[in-house]
TrEMBL record:
Gene3D superfamilies: MFS general substrate transporter like domains. Residues 1-405 form the Major facilitator superfamily (MFS) profile domain. The chain crosses the membrane at residues 20-39, 45-63, 84-101, 107-127, 148-169, 175-197, 222-243, 255-276, 288-306, 318-339, 351-372, 384-401. SUPFAM superfamilies: MFS general substrate transporter. GO terms for molecular function: transmembrane transporter activity. The lineage of its organism: Bacteria, Bacillati, Actinomycetota, Actinomycetes, Kitasatosporales. It is a multi-pass membrane protein. Pfam families: MFS_1. CDD domains: MFS_MdtH_MDR_like. One of its GO terms (cellular component) is plasma membrane. This is MFS transporter. Its main location: membrane.
Length: 405
C-alpha cells in the first residue's frame, strides 16, 4: 500500500490546528451558501438586471474566485497562511456587507468581485495547510491523510447543506439580512482565527514568489492530475447544467432539483468517511480516482440509456436520481484523493501554489468545457448523444492520471 492509503484502519485524534481548519471549512460554506443560492434572483428581481447581465456577474464571481486561487496559494507560500486567511475574511465581510446595500450595477459588480477574491485568498491557504498537516499527521500517527481530506470534504458539504437553509430562513426578512448574516459568520471566523491560528507553523517554509510558476508548468505529472481533476469538475458541473434540463424534461418543473441536490449533500455527509475507509484499504490512489471517474461516466450512461424510452413524471426522475447518486459516489473517490496527492507532486515549500493551481487549472477547463457542453445540449442531436459524449469525458480522463505516488 502507498503513503496515501497506509494506516486507514488506524484512527488518531486530530491536532487542534486540523480541527480548527476543518471547522473553518464548515463555517466558510455556511456563510457562503447562505447567500449564493439567492443571488441570481435578487439581481434579476430586486436590482432589475437583464438575464445576460446576471449570468455575466455570476461568471465574474467564479473567475475572481477559482481563476485567482493560484494567486492566493502563492501568497500563502510567501507570507504564511495567517495573514492571507485574515485578509480574505476581512474582504469577504466587506463584500457581503456591500452586496447587501448595493442597488446599482457597478456596486453589485464590485461587491461580487470582492467576495470572489476573498475566497481566492483564504481557500487555497486553508486547503494547502490542511493537506500539509494531513501529511504530518500521517507521518506521526499512521492515520491516512486521505481520511483527513475526506473529513474536510464532509465539513464543506455540511456547510453547503446548512447554508441555504439559513439563507432561506433569513430571506423572509430580506436579502440584506441574508448578506449581513453571511458577513456576521465571517466576523466570527475572523475573530476565531485571529485568536487561535498560530503566527508561525512549524515546518512551513516561506519561499520567494519568483520561479514557482515556471517550475509548476514543467511538472507534467501535476499538470496531468490537474487535467484529470478538471474533467471530474466538468462532469460534476453538469449538476447545474445538464441535470436541470433533464429534470425539466421529465417533470415540466425544476422543483425536484432541490431534493436531488439535498440527496447529493446528504450522501457525502453520511457516506464519505465509510467510503474513503473501505476504498483506501483496497485501492491505491490512481485506482481510486479511476474507479471514481468510471462511476461518474456510468451516471451519464444511465441517463443516456433511459432517454430513448422517454419516461416522464416520477419514473422520469429515476435516471436523474441514479445519475446524482453515481456522480456523488465518484466525487467521494476522486476529490479527497486528488487533494491528498498534491503534496507528493508539489515542489518543496510551494504547496499553496500547487493547491491553488489545481483549482485554477481545473476551473479553466470547466469554463471552456461548459461552453461546449451548453452548445452540445442545444444542437438537437438524438436525446442520448449528449449524455454519451459527457460520459466519455471522465472515462477518457483516466488515461491522464499520473502513475505511482
Amino acid at each position: 500500500m502507498t503513503s496515501l492509503t497506509v494506516g486507514l484502519r488506524k484512527t488518531a485524534p486530530l491536532t487542534p490546528l486540523l480541527r480548527l481548519l476543518i471547522l473553518t471549512q464548515l463555517a466558510f460554506n455556511i456563510g457562503f451558501f447562505a447567500v449564493l443560492p439567492f443571488l441570481s434572483e435578487h439581481l434579476g428581481q430586486a436590482v432589475g438586471m437583464a438575464g445576460w447581465l446576471v449570468g455575466f456577474v455570476l461568471g465574474l464571481r467564479t473567475f475572481s474566485q477559482q481563476g485567482l486561487f493560484v494567486v492566493g496559494g502563492a501568497l500563502a507560500d510567501r507570507y504564511g497562511i495567517r495573514p492571507v486567511v485574515l485578509a480574505g475574511c476581512v474582504l469577504r465581510i466587506a463584500g457581503f456587507a456591500w452586496l447587501g446595500y448595493a442597488t446599482r450595477t457597478w456596486a453589485v459588480i464590485g461587491a461580487v468581485l470582492l467576495i470572489g477574491f476573498a475566497a481566492a485568498l483564504f481557500s487555497p491557504a486553508v486547503e494547502s495547510e490542511v493537506a500539509r498537516q494531513a501529511v504530518v499527521h500521517e507521518q506521526a500517527t499512521g492515520a491516512s491523510r486521505t481520511r483527513v481530506l475526506a473529513l474536510f470534504t464532509v465539513a464543506g458539504q455540511a456547510g453547503a447543506f446548512v447554508g441555504p437553509l439559513l439563507g432561506a430562513l433569513l430571506l423572509s426578512v430580506d436579502f440584506r439580512a441574508v448578506c449581513l448574516a453571511g458577513a456576521g459568520i465571517f466576523v466570527l471566523v475572523l475573530a476565531g482565527h485571529a485568536w487561535l491560528l498560530p503566527q508561525h507553523l512549524p515546518g512551513r517554509e516561506r519561499v520567494r514568489l519568483e520561479g514557482g510558476v515556471r517550475l509548476l508548468l514543467r511538472n507534467r505529472r501535476f499538470l496531468a492530475l490537474c487535467c484529470a481533476y478538471g474533467a471530474y469538475l466538468l462532469a460534476y458541473n453538469q449538476l447545474y447544467l445538464a441535470l436541470p434540463a433533464e429534470v425539466e424534461r421529465a417533470t415540466g418543473s425544476q422543483a425536484p432539483l432541490a431534493w436531488l441536490f439535498a440527496l447529493s449533500s446528504l450522501l457525502v455527509v453520511t457516506a464519505q468517511l465509510p467510503v474513503t475507509r473501505w476504498v483506501g484499504e483496497r485501492l491505491e490512489p490512481r485506482r481510486s480516482m479511476a474507479t471514481g471517474l468510471l462511476l461518474i461516466a456510468a451516471g451519464f450512461a444511465v441517463v443516456a440509456l433511459a432517454r430513448p424510452v422517454g419516461w416522464t413524471g416520477t419514473a422520469g426522475l429515476l435516471p436523474a436520481a441514479g445519475f446524482v447518486v453515481l456522480l456523488t459516489l465518484g466525487q467521494m473517490l476522486v476529490a479527497p484523493v486528488a487533494r491528498a496527492w498534491v503534496p507528493d507532486l508539489a515542489e518543496k515549500g510551494r504547496l499553496g501554489l500547487y493547491t491553488g493551481a489545481l483549482s485554477s487549472v481545473s476551473g479553466l477547463i470547466v469554463l471552456t468545457g461548459s461552453s461546449a457542453t451548453g452548445t452540445l445540449l442545444d444542437t438537437g442531436l438524438p436525446a442520448a448523444v449528449p449524455w454519451l459524449v459527457l460520459a466519455a469525458v471522465p472515462a477518457a480522463a483516466i488515461a491522464l492520471l499520473p502513475r505511482g505516488t
